[in-house]
């Protein structure tokens, strides 16, 4: 009587094992072809209904070229401590989820509980490429020891969206993650990192996490620590068409980043003239640094718009918020932190647009009770709510709308609820303005 060895697919048609395709997992034999055969068998080009779960048992799986990931696949290891893929490569990714390559298809993929160890990666080799990938989930994946590579460990490029990384770990790498546009109009959006660990970056790196021309990238409840790169997170906008916007960094723990390097920052938002980084929320984070490793700036802003910073706390800080210039509409709460170079919110708490020629005609306003013309070029504005005159400021612009000539406008606070506006022409004579705009700013309590 002959016996037939049972395989996973015999037991459950929805599961296959890498061992059934010849993968050894001893760290010595090359498992590239066996793993690729298993991936090809588990993935399905046509429908999620026909895809399978690929189980990679405990072991160390040596690979020497790229593994191309198929659509709808679910790859599961035993745990991050027991199942490891160890690539021996000097260029390109160890795992390829590039939908534009014609070899890999990159959508609705699921991965969990294994490690990718870059101890033997050199040159420009790295762990994983995602390009035009959509709707994929990563649970408890560990990326470790990519210190010999000049490339980020994970590269997310082009039009990727709906990628979710949950309880994943990046540790002892040259650079952890980059999320970048493809340079021809494609950009990534809705990439979320939840309860992830970003740990240990070598000192000669520039950015641990680099985001360029993307939208809705979120870090929630993550730990970012011991990253000796100049910037822990750099979010950059370099294109007028693809501005970087609508990001969230929330409820994270940031510790011992920057290693005290010149111009280092925990979070650096960097736009350019004409295309600022905009719509970023930095809220509820804890910045804790030892004196030796503290970055020069916890948060640094340059060419930004509509940035919201609130409810953060800091220990042993340098400058909590560094103003590198050209920042507008920034709301900053500076409680429980050290020095803030942007101390007041640039969001008006009251504003008005009105025609003051002869009499007052209010076009639109907020927080304004009344506007009265006292005499030529002189108006009194009454606010709806009283404000502290020691921490209030107002700006006013005016022009003679009939001929488009700018006028000189000045504001003078009179009481906690009133401002006087004085308007003059170029000759210094008081004159009415046809187009007058007023913005009132109040420092946070």
Structure description:
The chain is mostly beta strands and 445 residues long. It has 2 domains: 8-340, Single-stranded right-handed beta-helix, Pectin lyase-like (Pectate Lyase C-like, 3 Solenoid), CATH 2.160.20.10; 350-442, no CATH class. Helices cover 3% and strands 51% of the residues. The strands form 3 sheets. The chain has a 21-stranded parallel beta sheet that branches. It is elongated. The termini are far apart. The mean pLDDT is 86.
Question: What is this structure's SSE topology?
Answer:
Layout: H1 8-11, E1 15-17, E2 26-30, H2 32-42, E3 53-56, E4 59-63, E5 67-68, E6 74-77, E7 83-87, E8 91-98, E9 110-117, E10 124-131, E11 134-144, E12 154-157, E13 161-166, E14 169-173, E15 177-180, E16 189-194, E17 197-201, E18 207-212, E19 215-220, E20 223-227, E21 231-236, E22 248-250, E23 253-255, E24 265-270, E25 277-283, E26 286-288, E27 297-302, E28 304-310, E29 313-315, E30 319-323, E31 327-332, E32 339-340, E33 350-355, E34 361-366, E35 368-375, E36 378-383, E37 392-400, E38 405-413, E39 418-424, E40 435-442
Beta fraction of the residues?
A: over 45%
CATH class of the largest domain: Mainly Beta
Question: How many individual helices?
Answer: 2
Helix content: under 10%
Dominant shape = elongated
Rounded average pLDDT: 86
Quaternary structure classification: single chain
CATH superfamily of the largest domain: Single-stranded right-handed beta-helix, Pectin lyase-like
Major beta sheet summary: 21 strands, parallel
What are the segments in which pLDDT stays under 50 over at least 5 consecutive residues? none
In CATH terms, what is the architecture of the largest domain?
3 Solenoid
């Amino acid at each position: 009587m002959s016996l037939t060895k049972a395989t996973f697919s015999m037991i459950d048609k929805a599961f296959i094992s890498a061992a059934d395709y010849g993968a050894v997992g001893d760290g010595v034999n090359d498992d590239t072809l066996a793993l690729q055969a298993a991936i090809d068998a588990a993935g399905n080009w046509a429908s999620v209904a026909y895809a399978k779960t690929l189980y990679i048992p405990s072991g160390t799986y040596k690979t020497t070229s790229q593994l191309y990931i198929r659509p709808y696949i679910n790859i599961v290891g035993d745990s991050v401590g027991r199942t490891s893929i160890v690539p021996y490569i000097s260029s390109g990714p160890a795992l390829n989820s590039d939908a534009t390559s014609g070899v890999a298809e990159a959508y609705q993929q699921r991965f969990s509980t294994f490690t990718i160890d870059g101890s033997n990666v050199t040159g420009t080799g790295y762990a994983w490429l995602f390009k035009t990938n959509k709707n994929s989930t990563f649970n408890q994946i560990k990326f470790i020891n990519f210190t010999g590579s000049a490339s980020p460990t994970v590269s997310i490029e082009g039009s990727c969206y709906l990628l979710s990384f949950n309880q994943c770990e990046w540790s002892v790498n040259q650079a952890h993650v980059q999320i970048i546009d493809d340079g021809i109009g494609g950009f990534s959006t809705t990439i979320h990192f939840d309860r992830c660990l970003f740990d240990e970056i070598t000192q000669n790196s520039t950015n641990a996490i680099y985001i360029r021309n993307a939208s809705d990238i979120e870090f929630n409840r993550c730990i970012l620590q011991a990253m000796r790169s100049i910037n822990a997170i750099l979010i950059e906008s370099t294109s007028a068409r693809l501005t970087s916007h609508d990001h969230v960094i929330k409820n994270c723990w940031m510790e011992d980043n920057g290693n005290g390097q010149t111009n280092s920052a925990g979070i650096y938002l960097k736009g350019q003239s004409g295309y600022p980084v905009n719509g970023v929320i930095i809220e509820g984070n804890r910045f804790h640094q030892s004196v030796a490793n503290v970055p020069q700036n916890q948060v640094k802003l340059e060419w930004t718009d509509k940035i919201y910073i609130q409810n953060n706390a800091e220990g042993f800080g340098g400058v909590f918020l560094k103003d590198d210039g050209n920042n507008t509409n920034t709301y900053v709460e500076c409680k429980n932190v050290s020095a803030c170079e942007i101390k007041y919110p640039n969001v008006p708490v009251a504003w008005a647009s009105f025609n003051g020629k002869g009499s007052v005609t209010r076009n639109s306003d907020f927080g304004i009770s009344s506007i009265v013309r006292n005499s030529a070029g002189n108006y009194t504005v009454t606010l709806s709510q009283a404000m502290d005159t020691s921490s209030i400021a107002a700006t006013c612009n005016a022009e003679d709308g009939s001929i488009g000539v700018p006028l000189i406008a000045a504001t003078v606070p009179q009481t906690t609820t009133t401002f006087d506006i004085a308007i003059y022409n170029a000759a210094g004579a008081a004159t009415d303005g046809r187009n007058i705009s007023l913005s009132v700013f109040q420092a946070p309590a």
